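Researcher: We're teaching a course module on how sequence relates to structure. For the next exercise, students receive a sequence and then see the predicted structure as tokens, so they can try to spot secondary structure elements on their own. Here is the exercise chain.
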Amino acid sequence: MSADDFLDRVFANLPRPAGRFEYKAWRHGGRPTQEGVGILPATGVDVSRMADAVLDLDHYRGNIDYVEEARIVADPRFSPPQTTRFYQRVKIPVLGSLHHELLMEDKGERDGWRVLSWYHLGPENDRLDAGKGARTEYNIGAWLIKPDAVAYALSSCPRKGDVGRLKFAALTRGADAGAAKVLQGNIEGMLAWSRRR
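Model: And here is the predicted structure for the students to work with:
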């Protein structure tokens, strides 16, 4: 698995900056959740500093909202910071915790954007303890960074067997309904953290 096909879809759907936060979502592959990308114009973004914050995976807790646990997982298959395996557990208000193992990749530059993307590590995710939180069925995303804008893209879904029917609906259809607000909050949070580092 890789994020390359997802990134192609993100760039094909990336809204034009319009002086305010813009969001676009689309369906892909019959999945229960939409894929989406939000873009926030911002002045004076230090691209390297922002990328360093995104790659500071051991320190998301306490700096990024809803992150309960985040840590780099040593794995000889990967070479940080270019490719980094990491574990993350997030707590969604009212709905509980989700967790996953992911691979973060520094993809360099594309179309004038610095690109950092991640994707779900299936076998590693399968071994996670469902008692600590619902595992994700898939989780793939990207940060796109320029001096005058930051974009965040995401496609994510919980494993249906780890949650009840009502919670699954809330974490899929409900997540689609609230995705624009969540993506904007993630961008604002990461940007603020990068500026106070």
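Model: If you want an answer key for the exercise: The two ends are 33 Å apart (CA to CA). The chain has a mean pLDDT of 95.
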